[in-house]
Amino acid sequence: MKSVLVTGGAGYIGSHVCKQLSLRGFEPVAFDNLVHGHADCVKWGPLIEGDIHDRDALSDTLARYRPAAVVHLAAYAYVGESVSDPLKYYSNNVSGTISLLGSLQSHGVSKFVFSSTCATYGIPDVIPISEDTRQEPINPYGQSKLMIEKILADLARASDFSYVALRYFNASGADPDGELAERHDPETHLIPRALMAAGGTIPELQVFGDDYPTPDGTCLRDYIHVTDLAEAHVRALDYLENGGANICLNLGTGKPLSVNEIMTAIERVTGRRVPVAIQPRRTGDPAALSAEGALAERVLGFSPTHSDIDTIVKTAWASFKPAT
């Protein structure tokens, strides 16, 4: 059984990736500082509590488990926080990744799957967004991920290092088997907050803008189920194992949904009303974002199978519905 180091393996996406790796015959080794991750989400392999800045902890882990590859998901990912505290994001996301890459070089680990983001594109001129769309991030979070993409490309040119960078759109949903949940603190994402409003955990869902140039006036976003994201990571590892070239790929459905469509789906699936408070637009929020996913399908043979909105809502609702 080959081991795979999963940084951030106790987090939302990381824990789902670990499960998928295990199902496909790998031993996932979760490396996580547990700042945002949860130890009880690590169920399919060992958990090493450590920080990616800690070269000694990384070296010990790499020497012990000798991973065939790394899936790197350890990052801070709150856009608003990145604007108010940019040094935190550049230190953790960029400097931490450099620390990780240095340790991998020392131990001869050369296959790398990177959790990037559609935030590297900023506000695009054309929708859907393809991989060759100009990358102009508008916040430090997106900038930090773009910097890492550039570092990976430089390292690959200088050595036998190989990588796949996966630019996610909106991760959503939860494990269909109910073994994992979505647990962010604070919770800032639309679908969980709408479910919290439906379940009475918060009084209302704040909707930022209902006057966008979209069919119903609310923002359009591309939602992809976290289980589909996990599958894409495993396929990216297979691709690298088979000698695949370095590449950046979008992960989305190409079928964006509006805020109002999300609320309608939640009310349909849960049978509960979502109380809403309309707020002014937020600065920097594009009217629409969606992925052109043909390249991931062609290169990885990947297409989402869990990302219809009812499945997303049903699996996410298990994390937020009130106890009966």
What is the CATH topology classification name of the domain at 3-172 and 223-251? Answer: Rossmann fold
Biggest sheet, strands in spatial order? 3-2-1-4-5-6-11
Give the proportion of residues in helices.
25-40%
Which architecture of the domain at 3-172 and 223-251 does the CATH hierarchy give at level 2? 3-Layer(aba) Sandwich
Number of strands: 13
CATH class of the domain at 3-172 and 223-251 reads: Alpha Beta
Structural class: alpha/beta
CATH superfamily of the domain at 3-172 and 223-251: NAD(P)-binding Rossmann-like Domain
Q: Return the average pLDDT rounded to an integer.
A: 96
| Number of alpha- plus pi-helical segments | 10
Q: Based on CA inertia axes, which overall geometry fits?
A: globular
Describe the sheet with the most strands: 7 strands, parallel
Low-confidence stretches: none
* H/E topology pattern: EHEEHEHHEHEEHEEEHEEHEHH
Distance linking N and C termini: 42 Å
Strand content: 15-25%
Alpha-carbon Rg, integer: 19 Å
